[in-house]
Write a structure and sequence with these properties.
single chain, 170 residues, mainly beta, 4-stranded antiparallel sheet, 49% strand
């Protein structure tokens, strides 16, 4: 039996592709993958397999937990373990807004259909509705007994927020 596999040596490493704690989000065209990578976000060109951009904030050392795409296709909300949310611009690769309002790790993010309201849920069991344009929190919704695991806006005579938690409440 040939033991050539014992002579294998790696030439280089690829680096961090994605963090296991967060989920990747695709851009509106499906060409780019926006992926959490520890405290940064990496934008990958899926077809070429190359890194297009790396988003990070020098003031932040917390790990990325979730990402949401705005309906306009260029803004992305990124939630972190420390409870902060940063809005990044895909075209400029810059942080536009920093929102602080959770005491626990951000676990769910969702934009409404206009992209002007952002809903965030966290392990602190609170849901905060943010005015993205005004850069302020509009409402804090309390009452869940466990981590918020999902958010959705349901169109029925105006938009209504729908949420779910790990405790089974909807």
């Amino acid at each position: 039996m040939v033991k050539s596999y014992l002579r294998y040596e790696a030439q280089s490493t690829f680096g961090v592709i994605a963090s296991p704690g967060g989920k990747a989000v695709f851009d509106h065209s499906g060409r780019l993958s926006i992926t959490p990578a520890l405290e940064s976000v990496i934008v990958w060109d899926i077809k070429k397999g190359t890194q297009v951009a790396r988003w990070s904030d020098s003031d932040n050392t917390a790990e990325v937990t979730c990402i949401a795409r705005s309906p306009n296709g260029k803004d992305y909300a990124v939630g972190y373990v420390d409870g902060s949310i940063r809005l990044f611009d895909l075209t400029g690769n810059t942080v536009n807004v920093v929102l602080n309002g959770h005491r626990g790790s951000v676990s769910a993010l969702r934009f409404d259909s206009t992209g002007t309201v952002l809903a965030s849920g966290a392990r602190d069991t609170d849901i905060v509705l943010w005015d993205v344009v005004g850069e302020v929190g509009l409402y804090r919704l309390r009452g869940h007994k466990d981590e918020i695991t999902g958010l959705a806006f349901v169109a029925a005579r105006g938009e209504t927020a729908l949420n779910a938690s790990a405790s089974g409440h909807v």
